């Protein structure tokens, strides 16, 4: 799916369904957190596990709002160690919102949305920032993909050294 520069996420993405897989490229109108919220709007309340290189204030505030509203039932974040340098206040804020949060040498950008009915994994070039540049990724409605992504992120958060 190729999203033109002026196309919204809602205009280009079909509704989620079991087994759905799509490769996407965005012209920069929507970002990683927009995709997360679009998925949550379809799945309903769910756990979110994420890895990202960067996060900025607006996406962090929007994520915290969904957490407090109950749309995100549990939040786990793995960040690159330099997130404290790029945005100490934002990191401190989101760290106090998440059930678990860890710094690591992380350039991965991925998240998982899971509840009793849905298992969705996204692997992307995008961070949790408002970025007007081209980004691309893959969205998979797949228990296997969600488990794989969740497992390596949570193992790294728990200092389980999944890559050793």
Structural write-up:
The termini are far apart. This protein has helices spanning 9-12, 32-43, 57-69, 83-95, 143-157; strands spanning 2-3, 21-26, 46-52, 72-80, 100-104, 110-114, 119-124, 135-141. It has five helices and eight strands. The protein has one domain (2-157): 2-Layer Sandwich (Endonuclease, Chain A). The longest helix is centred in the C-terminal third of the chain and has 15 residues, at 143-157. The mean pLDDT is 91. The protein is of the alpha/beta class and 164 residues long. It has an eight-stranded mixed sheet, with helices on both faces.
- In CATH, the architecture is 2-Layer Sandwich
Supply the helix-strand structural class: alpha/beta
What's the story with the biggest beta sheet?
8 strands, mixed
Instruction: Name the helicity range.
Output: 25-40%
What string gives the helices and strands in order? EHEHEHEHEEEEH
Physical arrangement of strands within the biggest beta sheet? 1-2-8-7-6-3-4-5
Gross morphology is globular
Percent in strands: 25-35%
**What number is the mean pLDDT?**
91
**Poorly predicted spans:** none
The first-level CATH class is given as Alpha Beta
Kindly, what is the distance between the CA atoms of the first and last residues, rounded to a whole number of angstroms?
36 Å
Total strands: the figure is 8
Number of helices: 5
Q: Report the CATH superfamily.
A: Endonuclease Chain A
Report Rg: 15 Å
What is the count of structural domains? 1
| CATH topology (level 3) name | Endonuclease, Chain A
């Amino acid at each position: 799916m190729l999203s033109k520069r002026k196309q919204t996420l809602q205009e280009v993405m079909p509704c989620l369904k079991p087994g759905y897989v799509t490769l996407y490229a965005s012209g920069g109108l929507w970002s990683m957190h927009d995709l997360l919220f679009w998925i949550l709007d379809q799945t309903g309340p769910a756990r979110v596990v994420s890895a990202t290189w960067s996060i900025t204030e607006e996406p962090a505030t929007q994520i915290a709002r969904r957490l407090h509203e109950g749309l995100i039932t549990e939040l786990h974040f793995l960040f690159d160690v330099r997130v404290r340098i790029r945005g100490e206040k934002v990191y401190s804020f989101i760290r106090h919102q998440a059930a678990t949060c860890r710094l690591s040498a992380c350039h991965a950008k991925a998240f998982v949305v899971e509840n009793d009915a849905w298992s969705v994994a996204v692997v992307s070039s995008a961070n949790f920032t408002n970025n007007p540049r081209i980004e691309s990724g893959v969205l998979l409605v797949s228990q296997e993909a969600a488990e794989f992504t969740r497992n390596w992120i949570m193992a790294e958060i728990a200092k389980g050294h999944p890559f050793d």
